[in-house]
# Entry
Amino acid sequence: ISAGNGCGHTVLTPHSGTLSSKNYPGTYPNHTMCCWLLQAPPGTSLLLAFGDVDLEPSEHCAHSSLLLTDPQTGTAYGPYCRNSIPSAPLLVTNSSTVTVLFNSTSHRSGRGLLLSYATSQHPETPDLPLTMCFSVYCPAGCKDIHGDIWGNPRQGYRDTSVLCKAAVHAGAIADELGGQVTLSREKGITLYESAFANGLHSKRGSLSEKRLVFHKVCCLLSPACDDVLEVVAFNASSWWHEVDMLGQDRAWVAERAALSTTGHSWAAEPGTEAAWLELDLGTRRNVTGIITKGSEQHNYYVTSYHVSSSRDGKNWRPYRGSSGQEDKVFEGNTDSQGEVSNAFIPPMVARYIR
# Structure
């Protein structure tokens, strides 16, 4: 729960979350406040990681401050500001409830604050030293935090990338829930290509000595879990039968929807409001994600879409993602040139995909 006019990026879930002051990492505004109430499941305790506390210094932090209180025990932590920062980057509490209070008066400088938290069930933090292979717990809400990433899910990421933000881009976790990620630190490569995946843009970057490679659990059991699935048949609600200016026919049929198809692709009949494309995988398969691309020569592309799955081709279930509340809307392409990846977290088991 958060309240006040000084709240910035905030994602709070029972097991983890991320919060920041308004405008972070820009200068936080004058005369604002925000109060966050963090509540973990009974029987667990909260661990808070101070990513950044940069509030303009003042005596006893009287002008701008961060104060944490444990209402169950009456314990207070802080107040904190630039001349009175937390003694350690990780605060281990003995409570499942913590109140975080930020307030400001008149000031000239300061980035504000960035905090994340997890429960005692997930004591690992992203601040651990990087070994060759390691596992960390990423809190919910990493997608929109400050910081850049370089690379993509196929080649890996520069080791200077924001780790948990890269994990969302790679489809290793869902931003709404966070979670455990396993990754290795491997030899770097000359060039990291930019990509749009899971609602995030990565940057094109140059050589680094090391790179981060995320591993899905299924890959520990089967190296082929990220293979492209074979589509036995395509079907569609309709298709466009185009007659060009020279009177030549061009059929934008469903079979042309395969990603490797050259030339024109599939397109629904113009004016169709509820168009769908259906893929038959031949048998029930574990589907972990989807890649879309526009019709490059004709500058046509899909900007957003829903996904449904079926085991028999008759009964369809909309994909709702990790939250499970509403049908998930996937971000598609912004041009006809690049590929866009979206991960299914959790994966789907289905024969038919629409």
